[in-house]
Amino acid sequence: MESKKDNKIIIVPILIVLVFIFSIIGYRQVSGNEFSWPGVIYATLSYFTLENMKPEEATNNIYLLIAKYLAAAILGLGIYNLMYKYISRQFIRFKIKFGYNNHVIVFSTKLIGVNFLSDLLENNYKVILIEDPSEDPYFEKIEKDGVIIFKETEHNAKLFDTLMVNHASSCIVAYADDSRNIELSLKLIRYLRDSEFKHTVRILTHIEENNNLEVIKDYIDVSNADAKFDLEIFNIHSSAAKKIYDHFPPHNYFNFDPSEHNNAIAVIGYNQVAEDFIIENLILSHYKDCKNIKIYLVDKEADNILHDFMYKYPFCKEFIDIIAVKLLNNKFFANFNLSKELIEKLSKVKSVYFFGDSGSELMNMAARFRQFLSGQSMNYLQTPIVICYPEDISIMKLLDLERESSETLSNTFKNQLNINFVNMISDTCTSRRLLEESEYIDLLSRIINYYYSIKYEFEWVLKEKWQVTDAYPLIASIEKKWQDLSDKSAALSEKDIEQLVLQSIADFTKKSVDTLKPSFSIKKWWDQLSYHKKSANRYAARHLAVKINIMKNIGCYPLTHENILNSFHIIAPIEHKRWSAEKMTLNYRYGILPEDRKAKNIAKEILKIHDQLIPYNKLDDQNKEKDLNIFLLMPLLSALKVEIKK
User: Fold this and answer.
1) How far apart are CA 603 and CA 492, in angstroms?
2) Closest Cα partner for 147 from 115, 173, 177, 175?
3) CA distance 447 to 526
4) Burial label, 154 (beta-carbon count in 10 A; 0-12, 13-18, 19+)
5) How far apart are CA 544 and CA 643, in angstroms?
6) Residue 135 confidence (pLDDT) above 70
7) Which residues sit opposite 422 in a β-bridge?
8) Which of 5, 389, 462, 511 could bond to 468 as cystine, CB 3.0-4.6 Å?
9) pLDDT of res. 359
């Protein structure tokens, strides 16, 4: 289907040709033997400047009259287009300036897909897209649906002013080139730092290359603390891995009865998403008795893959047990591995995760693996299978042609074979996943950080800046109020918690809440964190679901202060192991920290040295208590509700 722009491109040359044809015919009739090609061409070109024509020429020759009218029409069309573009641009600027706030700005859909924009609109977000000049027919559709589109290659302050970047809720930077994404993110950060508007904008920047990811995560700490922006690095592969872990976590299928010895999962096939999924388990899959989760890695190159994984993560054996299973064929036929004992153990895994680059191959392998299970157990449908489906969805569309939505292939696989699909892009790059679930995790993360700040840093700030010599009673009273707060309300907001803290400090110091807020607000203590510390709090927040599962399985439910304290000796070591795995994955290593405050900060924040990366039983009492604190905070975290601004 041709666009309106395509039609204009075709019509205008035709009209110009017609002007010349009618003009030539007319001048032949008027000039007779005096007809001159150069003179006719010059005269015809002058039509486009609206040069006056004698009335007798108009009445004596209809062809010249038609030629002049057509030329005038073309000139008018050009003027209209120029005026229309100018007026349209001004109208769009006016519309954004006075009608847009907490909007979402998307820089390119090359990686996250154009369906993301439709999803944003369906969920009532105001959306602006900045894309390279392109004739993608989809842009015309989404523009009609309500997306404002700027086709720009140059990103500068003038464009950011037009986009009202400092009033946006989120900027998503997702060009296919890492260097371009990094450069644009730096421009956004500089612009926001210079902005006078006091508002935090989330910058979600896509980084593809692993080395770039490592360097940015390690050294962005030095300059990331700021109140005007919150930079978060994301990656399609790691996003898909997190989606799979959060929605199909191993603990959902494990049996934590003491007699159970087969709590294991299988990862079949290997790519970057599979590697990131194993890392998710390394950081988050820590359960009762601190036993390592067991992962069967099934692939035709399983031994080499395991060797490479151990090379990249040499500490992983402390936290997970990976068993390589060499796959001799993709049909799981006969002895696909030489060890029959290993085959038997593989048949008893509690969940299976398939990864690869061909959707049709993954579907075939999942069905064949289900056949393999049927030969090993009567309950062969009980084990859930999750397929990380690449975005080659054309075959799925073909197979679903003319099927009812309830009868689609994915629903058939799910309902009849217990095989679930997670599309690598379209299920992870959504408003719910990238914005809403992410904002909920950030809400939990901010409260976790605030709690630890109150408990371990407020006393020092009160002493140094507010001359409060003994703040311990105040800190203890705030902690007690936090424990009681979740019992008084079905749903708590971030403002409720902050107000409680500020009012408590105000009552104690006899200062006003407004005076104290710049020093003791939740935002203040979150904004000053480095990238690594924010990541650490986010992992602690995502582990909340695992912690709830742990508490239920050890009989510590409902989550009361008394129940949690009674389970201290069981749950605190679990959290310390999880924290240690997270720190080592984020490139921290054990080392003795210097006494000097500045040198200590350099060692921890830049060199990534930490003195608490030791077994739990070697911690002092104060640091053992830190591992319990997160559990004591769980009732309050469970009561929190996030408010998404659109």
Assistant:
1) 38
2) 115
3) 9
4) exposed
5) 19
6) no
7) 388
8) 462
9) 86
The terminus-to-terminus CA distance of the chain in angstroms comes to 34
Distance CA 457, CA 464 (A): 11
Nearest residue to 322 (alpha-carbon basis) of 338, 337, 301, 302: 302
pLDDT digits (tens, 9 = 90+) for 214-240: 777 666 654 455 678 888 889 999 999
Nearest to 531 by CA among 290, 231, 249: 231
CB 269 within 8 A of CB 301: no
Read off the pLDDT of residues 346-392 as tens digits, 9 standing for 90 and up. 888 999 999 998 888 898 999 999 988 887 777 788 899 999 998 76
* Average pLDDT taken over every residue of the chain: 85
The mean pLDDT value for 406-429 works out to 83
Which stretches of 377-442 are assigned E, i.e. beta strand? 385-389, 419-423
Report how far residue 240's alpha carbon sits from residue 637's, in angstroms, rounded to the nearest whole number: 25
pLDDT for residue 625: 87
For tokens 């994915």, name the residue: 410
* Cα-only R_g, the chain: 32
To the question of pTM greater than 0.85 for the whole model, the response is no
Name the residue among 375, 312, 305 with its Cα closest to residue 340.
375
- CB atoms under 10 Å from CB of 85, counted, come to 10
DSSP 432: I
The confidence band for 196, taking pLDDT boundaries of 50, 70 and 90, is confident
SS3 528: coil
> CB atoms < 10 A from the CB of 43, how many?
18
C-beta separation of 187 from 217 below 8 A: no
